[in-house]
Amino acid sequence: MSVGSFVFMLHSHLPYYRKAGMWPFGEENLYECMSETYIPLIKAIEELYNDGIMAKLTVGITPILAEQLNDEHLKNGFVAYLDEKLRVAQEDIERYPNENVAHSQHLRYLAEYYQKWYTDIKDLFVNKYNKDLIAQFKKFQDLGAIEITTSGATHGFSPLLCTDANLNAQFKVGSDTTKRLFGKKAKGCWLPECAYRQGYLFCSKTGDKKWRPSIEVTLQNNGIEYFFTESHVIEGGNSIGNRRVIGMYGNIEYIPLPEREKTGYDTFSAYWLPDAQVAVMGRNERAGYQVWSAADGYPGDGCYREFHRKDSNSGLNYWRITSPTTDLGDKMLYDPVLAMSQVNSNSDHYVTLLYHLLNDHKLATGEEGLVMVSFDTELYGHWWFEGVEFIKQVITKLSKYQKGIERLTASEYLEKHPPKEAIQIPESSWGQGGHFWVWQNHLTEWMWPIIHSCEKRISEIVSNYENIPNDKLLHRALNQLSRENLLLQSSDWPFLITTWQAKDYATDRFREHVDRFEKIADMIENNNINDAILSEIESIDNCFPDIDYRVYLPIEEGVIPQQECKLAPLYQ
Q1: Nearest CA-CA partner of 28 in 17, 38, 36
Q2: How far is 332 from 106, CA to CA, in rounded Å?
């Protein structure tokens, strides 16, 4: 007897790293995720398929990540990265055993383990996948094993963009890119940072009272039928993350929002949004917390591989977490066999948890419910080394032993169980405190006037070229201006500044894209385009090859003079 449905959503995203550094921030971050997450995930999906099991994962791949996975420079760079990993593993094999080093026999065993692991990853990438991960994801999409969703082109923070033309461009270019690379228009979307805002009335500079549509209107205009959000957005109450942030350089100023009243709604079903026929699903708090919680989640188990401690010579991870309170220098050596045993135990527990959540809901309401969980894909494999095996075991056990739970992709769930109610959700994100603070605070407030200035400038420039110019150099410049505008809008830059994970790198990257934008804009406005300068910029920022600059033609908002003008940002 069915107790309900399970939707497992993975959101895959990395900022644009191409030709923008290597380590500690840059291309190597992409290569780590390719080797530890994306290739193991494809391998797991294929193994499930060969075992007669459709994974039924909903896999979000942001357009800017997809472009990088499809890039020849980065494909070749990844092979070089793997070769370097194999080289240092071989050096460690030759280094051990060493009578002057404690447990050196076990260290040799781990070096041999990594040598085989990276050899297998390289063999898959080069020989089986022909260096084309996009084709592999597309293959399993077309077989019905997974569903691929889209996002904003460069993961721009939607609510803080000031013009509808720029908001539309993020999702129009994003949706078109997903269709170009995966051969099918995505029905679903990951709102960058789960960031949402309602529609609102505002006063223009001329005094007209205008209505700015909500986010879902832009989604519907681009054929997007659903998105995901956090549990507190649906249920009310307080975000789990509503606490003071401690950065690596001390306390970061943070003022939490007051707790919202409980709404009476829950995440056991999907809902329509009020302004467009777009559905929203909320993450199940209990099922999500069991994985991502730093204190109680599975990835923090002492048997699992320690992410932060690396060998001083090879950089390979030879240690396990041991315990949350163990200093890095006191960590025990990693044991892959012990770790896999713990995956088996954790996956058993998770399957049981899912069943009880759905069964308890059915007993209480008489209706079958939904448990939707969404996570950064990179958690599995990259941060939690054993995480992809966890996904595979959960899917296998649900398929073979827990048939009362129906595994569905997001679109399949909405087709079988269309929403019955429409709800209004508040301004929100999955960031600290559940609102916009992580991206708009005293550390990042200088960025937004620059972003807004670029938004308005590009619309002013392209409004002079409603028809594609015959001048090919000008046409190239207009398209490259559009790429730089998208890239400077990436939500990763303010996020990395606020969290101090890569403050200087993110600041430099933002300024670089702004400088390139302004350089190209100046050349266009002065009718003096330098081919060499433009070509150099194109050689670095070559994403979205089919972009059409006319996506930035201004969108006229409706004038609503009979309504009161509420307090709202003066953006127009």
Answers
A1: 17
A2: 11
Length of the chain equals: 572
Q: Based on DSSP, count helices (H) and strands (E) in the chain, helices before strands.
A: 18, 13
* Type and span of the H or E element at 246: strand 245-247
CA neighbor of 557 nearest in space, from 546, 535, 536, 572: 572
Tokens of 466: 């409603």
> CA–CA separation, 372 vs 9, rounded Å?
7
* Extents of the domains making up the chain: 4-434, 447-552
Select from 463, 368, 482 the least CA-distant residue to 416: 368
Query: Phi-psi bin for 471: left (phi > 0), alpha (psi -120 to 50), beta?
Result: beta
CA distance 181 to 411: 20
Task: Provide the pLDDT confidence category of residue 98 given band limits of 50, 70 and 90.
Answer: confident
Residue with tokens 């392209």: 462
Residue 565 confidence class, pLDDT cut points 50, 70, 90: very low
What is the maximal distance between C-alpha atoms in the chain?
85
- Cβ–Cβ under 8 Å, residues 60 and 190: yes
What global pTM score does this model have? 0.94
Alpha carbon distance 245, 499 (integer Å): 8
Tokens 């890039």 correspond to 71
Nearest 5°: phi and psi at 570?
Answer: -85, 85
Helix (H, G, I), strand (E, B) or coil at 59: strand
Catalytic positions are: 193, 376
In the prediction, which pLDDT does 209 show? 85
Q: Using CA atoms, how far apart are residues 172 and 180, in angstroms rounded to an integer?
A: 12
Q: Which residues pair with 569 in a beta bridge?
A: none
- Per the structure block, which two tokens stand in for 215? 């986010």
Cα 550 from chain centre? 27
CATH architecture of 4-434: Alpha-Beta Barrel (3.20)
Q: What is the DSSP string of 306-337?
A: PSS---TTT----BB---TTS-GGGPPBP-HH
Beta bridge partners of residue 209, listed in sequence order: 203
pLDDT digits (tens, 9 = 90+) for 12-32: 999 999 999 999 899 999 999
Could you give the C-alpha distances from 120 to 124, 377, 379, 383, in angstroms and in order? 6, 21, 21, 20
CA distance 487 to 64: 9
CATH topology for 447-552 is immunoglobulin/albumin-binding domain-like (1.20.1430)
> How far is it, in rounded angstroms, from Cα 546 to Cα 80?
29
Residues 154/64, Cβ–Cβ less than 8 Å:
yes
Q: What is the mean pLDDT of residues 365-388?
A: 97
CB 83 within 8 A of CB 172: no
**DSSP state string for 79-115:** HHHHHHHHHHHHHHHHH-S-TTSTTHHHHHHHHHHHH
* Angle, helix 503-525 to helix 492-499, in steps of 10 degrees: 150
